[in-house]
Amino acid sequence: MTAQTAQYPTQSLPKEPLDLPKEPLDLPSPHVASHNDVRTLLSWTAPGRPFRKRGRQYYLTSLLIVFLIELILFLFSQYVLMLLVASLVFVAFALSLVPPKNFHYRISTEGITIEDHFFLWQELYDFYFKNQYNVTVLHIRTHSLLPGELTITLGDMHKDHVKSALLRFLPFREVIKKTFMDKSGDWLARNFPLEKPNSK
User: Fold this and answer.
1) Which structural domain range is residue 93 located in?
2) Is the pLDDT of residue 24 over 50?
3) Percent of the chain, pLDDT > 90?
4) In angstroms, rounded to a whole number, what is the distance separating the alpha carbons of residues 132 and 139?
5) Residue 53 has what pLDDT?
6) What gap in Å lies between CA 111 and CA 106, rounded to an integer?
7) 125 is a domain residue
8) Mean pLDDT over residues 152-157, rounded?
9) SS3 state at 142
10) Do residues 113 and 158 lie in contact, with contact meaning Cβ atoms separated by under 8 Å?
11) Residue 30 falls within a domain, yes or no?
């Protein structure tokens, strides 16, 4: 035994870190239920948009009006506008001929799901209802410019059930002021109808 070992006996050496007392870990129990669980409030399936089958008079009148517009644009050499008008008419005819497919809608405690698209309540602003083609349509406006507004058909789901579920998260707007485009569309539909109400 050397003089250095005799000066510092083994009993006075510091203990290893493994001998230090361990503090208890404060981990959440996996059996404790969370208060933020996502719950489904309403879920239903309905067509993706309002749809009404058009009659022959609708297409004939539309083609006649488009022909006159295209003729005027051709006389003024507005070829780009001619292509634009033709494209819009093609889209309108496609939407009138092809019925929409069914979408799955879901209202939960976290937001609204439309097929594979999910919107948080923080992204949504308010909601209101409108009737289009004798179908009740739910409109939900968003804070961001895009998409701006969600259009949801109710199908067999009752309007009051949807309203009571949404009132927990969004304000309901009873009166919606019509824009210039809405007023213009109503005036054209009232004074220049493309088909008679009972035509098929």
Assistant:
1) 40-173
2) no
3) 45
4) 12
5) 83
6) 8
7) yes
8) 92
9) strand
10) no
11) no
